[in-house]
Write a structure and sequence with these properties.
Helix content is 46%, strand content 16%. A hairpin with a 5-residue loop joins β2 and β3. It folds into 3 domains: 162 residues, Nitrogenase molybdenum iron protein domain (Rossmann fold, 3-Layer(aba) Sandwich), CATH 3.40.50.1980; 175 residues, Rossmann fold (3-Layer(aba) Sandwich); 32 residues, no CATH class. It contains 18 helices and 14 strands. It is of the alpha/beta class and 455 residues long. The protein starts with 10 loop residues before the first strand and ends with a helix. Strands 1-11-10-9-12-13 form a 6-stranded parallel β-sheet, with helices on both faces. A 5-stranded parallel β-sheet has the order 6-5-4-7-8, sandwiched between helices. A 3-stranded antiparallel β-sheet has the order 2-3-14. The radius of gyration is 25 Å and the shape is globular. Pathway: Amino-acid biosynthesis; L-histidine biosynthesis; L-histidine from 5-phospho-alpha-D-ribose 1-diphosphate: step 9/9. This is Histidinol dehydrogenase. Belongs to the histidinol dehydrogenase family. Pfam families: Histidinol_dh.
């Protein structure tokens, strides 16, 4: 006799005639407010700082100390927060360790790394900005040029799992852009800077700077620089709440990619969707834990089928308990009026990942402005983009894709204009410039033009 299927852990919400309060609650949960901390994180904060600081206060303290004390503070917080006692000389992973990890790596794993790298190179090269020059009038030459950043830093997570995919999705776009120096930081853990697969991936890509540090202290070290880890111009890559808050804190000293929160997906599906596929796609994001997974559909029968599949597939997952908790906290099965209502609702959420499993995915995506990355059709799971398709998986979350974009090779370019006029062209435009400058009371501006006209 088989045991009964356990109840679905995810909420069902009918918003056909309302539901605004629930939607507001979900948006608030997913917004970048900086308060999503595990019980262990709160205990660690109390132990290290002696009082229950907020995450923002923790990050401000760490960043200030690293800025003022440099390597000493970086090592102190690495010991206190990551339980790793390191010397300054041990912070950087030796080249021999990178080479050894590569030499001992599974050949099939390395071939997959090469295959994925090639996919990323092909896509990122195709979208790379190129200099544009126009000559709108005789004697006038205007150029918009793109210059790669000199040095960038990459955060690679390593708390609960190893992420060689993040190395690929950040370092390769930077290389395509032409960045001279790439520094990777990863926590000193078996999933981080001591993970052989991650180190082998770095070596395969030609990344030679890898540091055994993570969290807010690593972000601060990259932003302000220290004697072991020189400062960078931009910091990219995912991380926990403290990494995200630290990136936000140092923005202005350096550039950052985005302020990223928990991973999230909205799946829009209709009666043509396969319930097992939809459930698998929701679970794939929820297993990040925290990870938000929301189904939006106008087919009521699909919701019941997906609920059954969620319960069934959950039992087969390695991280089933964590995934179940994420579904309970950040999941929902939402019933809407129709396809148009689904698109409107999705646009208001502005999800990091959008997966459309309907009979007309192209029609639906045309109605949606706000999504970090969209995946169309019944056979395009988000995992393809997470690992291999070509676009980067580093994306804005928490509704920020209303104004933020995902990472790409263009994220590592700085644009600037070049203007060149000859004497005759300056004479031709002088009257307009002088007139506006004088209206604004900036007579030195006007004189810098008129003095050339009168010479």
């Amino acid at each position: 006799m088989t045991s009964p299927t356990p109840p679905s852990p995810v909420r069902f919400v009918d918003v056909r005639q309302g539901g605004e309060a629930f939607l507001a609650e979900m948006r608030e949960k997913l917004s970048p407010r900086g308060d999503l901390v595990s019980p262990r994180g709160r205990e660690l904060t109390q132990a290290v700082f002696g009082k229950p600081l907020t995450p923002v206060e923790v990050v401000e303290t760490i960043c200030r100390d690293v800025q003022n004390e440099g390597t000493a503070a970086l090592l102190r917080y690495t010991a206190a927060l990551d339980r790793a006692e390191l010397t300054p000389e041990a912070l950087r992973v030796p080249a021999a360790d990178l080479a050894e990890a590569h030499a001992s790596a599974d050949p099939e794993f390395l071939q997959s790394i090469r295959n994925i790298r090639d996919n990323i190179v092909e896509f990122q090269s195709a979208i790379l900005h190129q200099d544009v020059t126009i000559e709108p009038k005789p004697g006038v030459r205007l150029t918009q040029r793109y210059v790669p950043m000199r040095r960038v830093g990459i955060c690679v997570p390593g708390g609960a799992a190893a992420y060689p995919s993040t190395v690929l999705m950040t370092a390769v776009p930077a290389q395509i852009a032409g960045v001279d120096e790439i520094a990777i930081v990863a926590p000193p853990t078996p999933f981080g800077a001591y993970n052989a697969d991650m180190l082998a991936t770095c070596h395969e890509l030609g990344v030679t700077e890898v540091y055994r540090c993570g969290g807010a202290q690593a972000v601060a070290a990259m932003a302000y620089g220290c004697d072991v880890l020189p400062a960078v111009d931009k910091i990219v890559g995912p991380g926990n709440l403290f990494v995200a808050l630290a990136k936000k804190h140092v923005f202005g000293t350096v550039d950052i990619d985005s302020f990223a929160g928990p991973s999230e997906v909205i799946v829009i599906a209709d009666e043509t969707a396969t319930p097992a596929f939809v459930a698998a796609d929701l679970l794939a994001q929820a297993e990040h834990s925290p990870g938000s997974a929301i189904l939006i559909t106008w087919d009521e029968a699909l919701i019941e089928s997906v609920q059954q599949e969620l319960s069934k597939q959950l039992e087969q997952l390695d991280r089933s308990d964590l995934t179940r908790d994420a579904l309970a906290d950040f999941g929902a099965l939402i019933l809407v009026r129709d396809a148009q209502h689904a698109c409107e609702l999705t646009d208001s959420f502005a999800p990091e990942h959008l997966q459309i499993e309907t009979s007309d995915p192209e029609g639906q995506i045309a109605q949606i402005r706000n999504s970090g990355a969209a995946f169309l059709g019944h056979h395009t799971p988000v995992a393809l983009g997470d690992y291999a398709a070509g676009p980067s998986h580093v994306l804005p979350t928490g509704g920020t894709c209303r104004w933020a974009a995902g990472l790409s090779a263009n994220s590592f370019l700085r644009s600037g204009s070049i203007t060149q006029f000859n004497a005759q062209a300056t004479q031709a435009i002088a009257g307009d410039v002088i007139r506006l400058a004088e209206k604004e009371g900036l007579t030195a501006h006007a004189n810098s033009v008129s003095i050339r006209s009168n010479s």
